[in-house]
Write a structure and sequence with these properties.
With 143 residues, this protein is mostly beta strands. It has one helix and twelve strands. The strands form two sheets. Strands 1, 3, 4, 5, 6, 11 and 12 form a seven-stranded antiparallel beta sheet that branches. The chain has a five-stranded antiparallel beta sheet with strand order 2-8-9-10-7. It is globular, with a radius of gyration of 15 Å. A hairpin with a 4-residue loop joins strand 9 (105-110) and strand 10. The chain has one domain.
Length: 143
């Protein structure tokens, strides 16, 4: 499966839309989220679905790809959560989208109605693939 590791910086709304598209349907363990208030950084380790990769067919079965990636937001002043218990480290959430609003916040929206809202001074976000992709037979579907 042809693969080129992603390394993307977002500093405006359009850049953030690109990162959001790359991370749609990412699986994120709550244990992989961390807010460092002193540094003003919010980090996540995600398992993103590689939408940019074509599936491979092996013995009639389609295989897709996921890859571990790091996502970092800078200039974060506060973190609010809705319907998430960050102490439940075994829970894995499904990221639907990321967007910024006119309220000075970046919204990370997950399936099931949960959300993380990052209050930021300015938009600065980095996404970087950290490993080689691994196969999965499951392709996310949206009704």
């Amino acid at each position: 499966m042809p693969y080129a590791p992603l390394k993307i910086i977002a500093e405006d709304h359009e850049d953030l839309q690109v990162i959001a598209a790359c991370l749609q349907d990412a699986l994120i363990p709550l244990s992989g989220m961390e807010y460092d208030a002193k540094k003003g950084e919010f980090h996540m380790v995600v398992n993103r679905f590689c939408w940019e990769c074509n599936p491979e067919s092996i013995e009639g079965q389609s295989y897709y790809a996921r890859v571990a990636a790091g996502l970092a937001f800078h200039h974060v002043k506060d973190v609010k959560k809705k319907s998430l218990d960050l102490q439940n480290e075994n829970e894995i959430v499904n990221l639907l989208t990321i967007h910024n609003a006119n309220d000075g916040c970046i919204h990370l929206v997950f399936s099931g109605g949960s959300e993380i809202k990052l209050k930021v001074d300015k938009l600065c976000c980095h996404l970087k693939d950290m490993d080689e992709p691994y196969p999965t037979s499951h392709k996310p579907a949206h009704p």
